[in-house]
Design brief:
By secondary structure, the chain is of the alpha/beta class. It has 4 domains: 93 residues, no CATH class; 291 residues, Zn peptidases (Aminopeptidase, 3-Layer(aba) Sandwich), CATH 3.40.630; 158 residues, Glucose Oxidase, domain 1; 93 residues, no CATH class. The strands form 4 sheets. The protein has an 8-stranded mixed sheet, sandwiched between helices. Strand 4 and strand 5 form a beta hairpin. Helix 2 packs antiparallel against helix 12, helix 3 packs across helix 7 and helix 17 packs across helix 18. The two termini are 39 Å apart.
């Protein structure tokens, strides 16, 4: 590492000067902060959340449409502009970029009963599951069926070994796997007549701790085998297993009235129109996903109602002349998760063209009971942008203010709700996370930078315990504040904002540099150099991303470049990882006609086209220091731009997620070319 005492001392001086001179209010926005603190209501947000969390909001369903109608009425009440429900046909066949449209799915009736022999006849004894009471007990995309059959335990049920010595023909099977995973063997090969699953939640520190949780289950939307599945708790499954171990016969009656039908992706949108005749065609999109099983309070009634509250508060403040109308247009969008966004940006390409930035809210209200950690996340390295630092600036302000308030210090803007908690926020800033619609906007087809507001972990995600009672109005208000302030500032910024933004970028860069130094201690010398090289390249690209939106004077730019240069001299400039290869590395181009990420929701474009008989590319099972297989695969495709060769893509992936072998990246890009997503440049 090349540095000197002199340059290190200079950097410390810069750091302390910036902190000492920085205003407590980010970006000089005290008036905005004051009015948002006064106007945003965590109580109203939660009240609206309580309503839609009573609805089983599955795609295309009656309850989803009722939720759309509810929000639409609220938007009319709040006097938003250009309120519209966009209906995109979905029949299981139509393709929208990489998304095969999924038909609507509804349930009319579903019950699971244990039976007993009484007076020579089988009668209902104990109700095990009831869709009317807890809709999540029916696995998504179940079809109608009615059977009375014995229960048998198949364990995971995903390998031949799980069926050795067992006769499951004509029986209901109990499995620890998601229902869709056991269909090929249990149903199709061995003749089971239905599935009872106790699949557990995503792994967190609280995994399997609450045996009463019932997990959201899934069957294949496009499977030719039409069956049904019930979801039960771990407690219920253990009861069944103990009785079966004792050689007790368990007879169940299952009845499901459900199925798919041609429908549509219903996407609700409204705007606060920008004031500048030239800039109002540039839009900042607030997004969330409306679809989810009941209750789905944090995931994602919280995000849906938070952006509704942002729309209400900003529109009211503008109408009352407390804040100016922004130069650019603010658009608010409610859609089905990932699939709806992919469909929208392909069905109406003008949305992709005019959306310059995205603020996505998915799980933003978890109270202490959920054990949630709040994140203000950024776009991946393939899409560097200054907006990361805008979101982090407002997020850091809430962290500081809420921490001081919780510690008993008097602060002007604690951003709390009277019916909410008083805890400090402790939000994590500036990391990249996969997991929701923002990854469609970020994807290499669209390249729309995002601020992603979300809770993770949440021990109740995707279960019947994701209830409104676990939602904190203060958390809703604070997440709404970060989203409202960030989006409004970006929509309003002009050339006069350049100096403010760059000062914020400097402060956030110092924080990132500290994280970089800690991380580099875990790397080999060559990977340290590679990580630093792309870190600086990414930071400079983020600075240049500002220029299309505000004029940056040569003096301001020179000052920023000098700042970066001094930091580089202090901690090292780094250099690309040099890889020996037997041939010139290939350069791939993206097929512009296929837009969207490979893995969407309920459908995977790559694997559908690739073929089930082929070996899965190794990238999907690869795990690095800071990333998993799907993150590597997602970003590898994002980095295909007709300029990056395979070595460059490998190096960036290694800098972002951790060291990955070149051949793993090469093989994946070759597989993508086999399904015509990319082509080798000649």
């Amino acid at each position: 590492m090349k540095h000197s005492i002199k340059t290190l001392a200079y950097s410390i001086f810069l750091f302390t000067s910036l902190i000492a001179n920085s205003q407590n209010i980010p970006l000089g926005q005290e008036k905005l902060v004051q009015h948002l603190d006064q106007e945003l209501s965590g109580e109203s947000t939660k009240r609206n959340l309580e309503y839609i969390s009573r609805l089983h909001r599955m795609r295309g369903s009656d309850d989803y449409n009722e939720a759309i109608d509810f929000i639409k009425r609220k938007l009319e009440e709040y006097q938003l502009q250009s309120i519209e429900v966009i209906k995109i046909p979905a029949d299981g066949k139509i393709m929208y970029g990489t998304q095969k449209s999924r038909p609507a799915w509804n349930v009319d009736f579903a019950e699971l009963w244990e039976m007993e022999m009484k007076d020579g006849d089988w009668r209902q004894k104990t109700k095990i599951a009831d869709w009317e009471s807890i809709p999540i007990v029916v696995a998504q995309d179940s079809h109608s069926g009615e059977v009375t059959a014995e229960l048998t335990d198949i364990g995971a049920g995903t390998s031949e070994a799980d069926y050795e010595g067992k006769n499951v023909n004509g029986k209901l099977v109990l499995t620890s796997s998601q229902p869709g995973g056991v269909v090929p063997l249990a149903i199709e090969k061995y003749g089971a007549v239905g599935i009872i699953s106790y699949a557990q939640n995503q792994v967190t520190a609280w995994w399997k701790e609450n045996e009463n949780l019932i997990r959201w289950g899934h069957l294949g939307t496009f499977s030719e085998t039409k069956t049904f599945a019930f979801m039960v708790s771990l407690k219920q499954a253990r009861n069944f297993q103990q009785r079966l171990k004792n050689e007790e016969s368990i007879r169940l009656h299952a009845k499901v009235v459900a199925g798919q039908s041609p429908g549509s992706y219903d996407i609700l949108t409204a705007v606060i129109e920008g004031s500048d005749p030239k800039l109002k065609n540039e839009e900042i999109a607030y997004t969330c996903h409306l679809d989810h099983p009941r209750p789905g309070a944090n995931d994602n009634a919280s995000g849906c109602m938070a952006i509704l509250e942002v729309a209400r508060a900003l529109n009211k403040l503008i109408a009352e002349n407390k804040i100016e109308k922004p130069k650019r247009t603010l658009r608010f969008i409610w859609s089905p998760e990932i699939e709806g966004t992919t469909a929208l940006l392909n069905f109406k390409p003008e949305y992709a063209e005019k959306t310059k930035f995205n603020i996505h809210m998915d799980m933003v209200g978890g109270g202490p009971e959920t054990k949630a950690i709040f994140h203000v996340s950024k776009s991946p390295m393939s899409l560097p942008s200054f907006i990361t630092d805008i979101g982090s600036a407002f997020g850091s302000f809430v962290n500081r203010s809420s921490n001081a308030y919780a510690s008993g210090v008097s602060v002007p803007y604690p951003i709390v709700s009277k019916e909410g908690g008083k805890e400090a926020l402790h939000a994590v800033m500036g990391e990249f996370h996969m997991g929701s619609d923002f990854q469609v906007f970020n994807e290499g087809s669209f390249k729309i930078p995002s601020i992603y507001l979300h809770d993770w972990p949440d021990r109740y995600i995707h279960t019947n315990y994701d209830e409104a009672g676990n939602i904190d109005p203060t958390k809703l208000k604070r997440s709404g504040f970060i989203g409202a302030a960030s989006g409004y500032y970006i929509a309003s910024m002009g050339s006069e904002s350049a100096a403010q933004i760059i000062e914020v970028m400097k402060r956030q860069l110092l924080t990132r540099t500290s994280v970089l130094l800690d991380y580099c201690q875990t790397l080999s010398e060559k990977e340290q150099a590679n990580t630093k090289y792309y870190f600086w390249k990414n930071e400079i690209a983020a600075f240049h991303s500002l220029k299309p939106f505000v004029s940056v004077s040569s003096e301001v730019e020179l000052n920023y470049i000098r700042f970066i240069t001094n930091l580089k001299h202090t901690i090292g400039e780094g250099e690309k990882y040099t890889l020996a290869t037997r041939k010139a590395p290939g350069i791939y181009e993206r097929n512009a006609k296929i837009k969207g990420p490979m893995s969407v929701f309920g459908y995977d474009y790559f694997f559908d086209k690739y073929g089930a008989d082929k070996e899965v590319p190794a990238i999907y099972s690869f795990t690095g220091a800071r990333g998993t297989g799907y993150e590597y695969a997602y970003e590898a495709l994002n980095l295909v731009n007709g300029e990056n060769d395979v070595i460059e893509i490998r190096n960036i992936l290694s800098a972002e997620f951790g060291d990955i072998p070149l051949d793993v990246v090469e093989n994946y890009l070759r597989a993508l070319s086999g399904v015509n997503v990319v082509t080798l440049k000649k």
